[in-house]
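Project standup — Tuesday

K.O.: blocked on the structure for the chain from last sprint. Re-posting the sequence here as requested.
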Amino acid sequence: PVEALFTFNREIVDGTRDLVCAYKLNLGFYEAQGIPGLQALQKTVEHIRAVAPDVIILADAKRGDIGHVAQKYAHAMFEVWGFDAVTVNPYGGHDMVQPFLDYKDRGTFVLCRTSNLGAGDFQDRLLISEGGDNQHTLYETVALEASRWNRYGNVGLVLGATYPRELSEVRRLCPEVPFLVPAIGAQEGSLEASVRGGIDANGRRAVISSSRGVLYASRNADFADAARKAAQNLRDAINRILSAEGHDWL
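H.V.: unblocked you, prediction finished:
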C-alpha cells in the first residue's frame, strides 16, 4: 500500500509495538532488494529500538557455515546489526553453531522441525545409535543436542506450527528450552495446538509468530490499523488458550 519499505515497516511497528514480544525480520526479503533493502532494514531496527526498546528484535537469517565463517556471521548479526537473537542452521554440527552461542547475552534459535512441506525429507529420518538401543528422528536428535549446547541458557529451537505433534514431542524432550513457532495460520485450531504443545510447564517459553497474517491484514491505506487488529486478535486468542490451561498472565 506504500512505496517505501521502511515507511511500511514503521507504520506496522507503530501500530503493534504495545502488543508484541518480538519482531522477526526475515533477512532474505531485505537482501533481495540490494543496498536499498539493507538501508530499510537498518532504519527499521533503529526505529524499533527508539519506540519499543523492550521488544526483542530477531533476525530470521538461518545462518550456518564452518567455524571461522560462522564467527563472521555471528559478529555481523549481533555486533554490526545489533540483533537480540538469530536463527541458525545446525546441519554442520556444534562448531558451526558455537560462535553464535558465545554471545551469552543473545539468543540463538536452532532450526529443528521446520514448517515447509519438504521438511520431512531429512528431518523425519530415523537415526539409530551404534548399539542399536536408541532411536530418534533427526529433528529429535537436533533438539537433544541443542539442549546439551545450552550451557549459557541462550539456546532456542525453531518448530513450525504446521506440525503440532512434532512440536509437542520436542517439548517433552526439551522442557525448558524456548521455542520459536512460525507459520501460524488463519485457523485458531492450529494456533491452539501450537500453544498447548509449545509452552513449558509454566505456560511460557513459546514465541508464537504470525507474519503475513499481520503484515497483509489489509493491502489498502488502513493497513496499519488492520495489522494492529490482527495482532491484537492473535494475542487475545493466545491468552484465552493459556487461560484455559491455567496459565493466566498476572
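K.O.: great, moving the ticket to review. The chain has a mean pLDDT of 94. The chain is about 50% helix and 15% strand.
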